[in-house]
Amino acid sequence: MSLSLQRCDETHLTQILELQERVCCDLIQRELYVPTGKDELRESLAMDYCLGAFADDRLAMFTLMIVNRVTPRSLGHALGYDEKRLRQTVTFDSTFVSPEHRGYGLQGLALPLKEREAAALGAQEALASVSPENTPSLNNLLAGGFTILARQRLYGGVDRFIVGKTLGKEE
Fold first, then answer.
1. 4-166: which CATH topology?
2. Beta bridge pairs of residue 7
3. Contact 163, 128 (CB under 8 A)
4. Does the structure show a pLDDT above 90 at 150?
5. How many C-beta neighbours within 10 Å does residue 171 have?
6. How far is it between the farthest Cα atoms of the chain?
7. How far is the C-alpha of 43 from the C-alpha of 63, rounded, in Å?
8. Chain-centre distance of CA 71, in angstroms?
9. Could you count the other beta carbons within 10 Å of the beta carbon of residue 159?
């Protein structure tokens, strides 16, 4: 399989929304993933780190990281972080892979790419949320060095682990 990685922008919004809808429709347990809204996606495409993996110009995987800025979308808010700490923390937000491209490790590929970008932005910590029932995603995060920090109701009341990882300088 040949894939190309590309930073996404507003021109990719329709493809991102379509892929997200396909992924959501394919889920047996809908609460495993809470879709990112169109306005949030538009905001992130303008302000955050958004990356797509394309197979023959078709979006196969999308991931976004909310950069170290003060926003209610930062999971640091849920953990009670102050403004200084929020500015040192990124949130690994949505990652979704098309049904036909699952099993190739694309979600696992996204983690180190986002970590490298976070370090370049001066972030000291990365946070993510995951359903306790989403074993593949939870295992990817734990294998990537994240630890469970809290269990909370987020995104309108769904059960989530908040996981975190201290970002160090590459040696």
1. Aminopeptidase (3.40.630)
2. 51
3. yes
4. yes
5. 3
6. 44
7. 14
8. 15
9. 13
Query: If you ran DSSP here, which 8-state letter would residue 142 be given?
Result: H
125-130 and 89-97 beta bridge pairing:
parallel
Query: Residue 98 region, left (φ>0) first, then alpha (ψ -120 to 50), else beta?
Result: beta
- Which bin fits 44, alpha (ψ -120 to 50), beta or left (φ > 0)? alpha
104 with 1: CB under 8 angstroms? yes
Burial (Cβ within 10 Å: 0-12, 13-18, ≥19) of residue 14: exposed
pTM given for the model: 0.89
Q: For residue 59, which of 93, 35, 32, 23 has the smallest C-alpha distance?
A: 23
- Please check the confidence at residue 170 and state whether its pLDDT lies above 80: no
The secondary structure of residue 36, as a DSSP letter, is P
Tell me how crowded residue 92 is: count the other CB atoms within 10 A of its CB.
27
Cα–Cα distance, 39 to 169 (Å, whole number): 33
